[in-house]
Amino acid sequence: MVSVLLLNGPNLNLLGKREPDVYGSETLDDVLARLEKVMEELGGRLEHCQSNHEGVLIDAIHRAKGVHDGIVINPGAFTHYSYALRDALAGVALPTIEVHISNVHAREPFRHQSVIAPVVLGQVVGLGTDGYEWALRALVRKLTQG
């Protein structure tokens, strides 16, 4: 059974309330319920952690080694400057996919750079909350089919 850790960074607890014109009206609980069904369909297990605190996310990444097979992460604003989060992902060396709900490349220039991107398998960007599902499916396929 494939086990995936889903991480959500700062302000994603406000999903559905914060800037719905950018991030949509679906709440994080809505997204999680949908992803649980996807993992059930795929025969896997999903654990979730959302935090507005960088250290909590880093600790979750460290604990993932030997417990989970891969990670899906939406680092939020940490995407653009958290070398600590980047180093944690590199350190555990688990296959990881980065997700962004909005198209960060079509937004403010500071959002165009990801310090996380060089240590992940790939990114899913700009597909709304559906991007989580595509990232999860792609990661599970990579983990099970190589």
From TrEMBL:
Pathway(s) of this molecule: Metabolic intermediate biosynthesis; chorismate biosynthesis; chorismate from D-erythrose 4-phosphate and phosphoenolpyruvate: step 3/7
Binding site for substrate: N74, H80, D87, I101, S102, R111
Entry-linked HAMAP family: AroQ
Residues at the catalytic site: Y23 (proton acceptor), H100 (proton donor)
Reactions this protein catalyses: 3-dehydroquinate = 3-dehydroshikimate + H2O
Keyword Transmembrane: no
InterPro entries, per the entry: DHquinase_II (IPR001874), DHquinase_II_CS (IPR018509), DHquinase_II_sf (IPR036441)
Enzyme Commission code(s) on record: 4.2.1.10
Protein name according to UniProt: 3-dehydroquinate dehydratase
Gene3D superfamilies hit by this protein: Dehydroquinase, class II
Subunit details: Homododecamer.
A biological-process GO annotation: quinate catabolic process
Coiled-coil ranges per UniProt: none
Site (Transition state stabilizer): R18
Task performed by this protein: Catalyzes a trans-dehydration via an enolate intermediate.
GO molecular function: 3-dehydroquinate dehydratase activity
Family to which the UniProt record says this protein belongs: Belongs to the type-II 3-dehydroquinase family.
Keywords, sorted A to Z: Amino-acid biosynthesis, Aromatic amino acid biosynthesis, Lyase
Keyword Zinc applies: no
